[in-house]
Structures are given as C-alpha cells and as structure tokens.
What we know:
Elements: H1 2-17, H2 35-38, H3 47-58, H4 64-68, H5 85-88
Helix pairs in contact: 1-3
Amino acid sequence: MKKVRLSLNFVFYYNEHCTMFTVSDSHNILDLKNPKSNKNKTPGFCDAEREGMTELLKSGFIDTFRHFYPEQKDAYSFWTYMMNARAKNVGW
C-alpha cells in the first residue's frame, strides 16, 4: 500500500499544477467479466489498486464511462488475444 500512497501523493500534487487524466480498466465489479475469479489474482484488480482508484474518484477525478452509464454491463475496452476473448466478450 506504500507504493500506492506515494503514487497518489504524486497524482494529487501534479493535478494541482497541470491538467491531467488517468486511465484505468477496472475499478468497479461491472468493469470486468469475471470479477470473483480475478479478485486479488490479476494485476489491475487487486484490492490495493482498486482502493487507490477509489481515492482518486473521491478526490474529484471522474470515471467518465460510469458517470454516463453507471449500471452498464458487458461493456469493455480490453480483451486479451488469447482464448477468443473478444468474440466471447470476456473483457476488462
């Protein structure tokens, strides 16, 4: 969690002086096809990473997709090239 805290401090400092945005694939359980099987096993969907994103959102950053589509399911921006994931819509 120390690395996450240091990164957030940098983001908050940088945001005070520059216009910035950040990109994240998965914060909400709706943002991932199989959240239960990926939780704390897949980079990007670990509790510490999700908590860091929660802090960013609480500080004023906006999840633009969830802002407009708060309950939208099965809408992803990434699919692995393996196991025909895009055709099956198994994404992030």
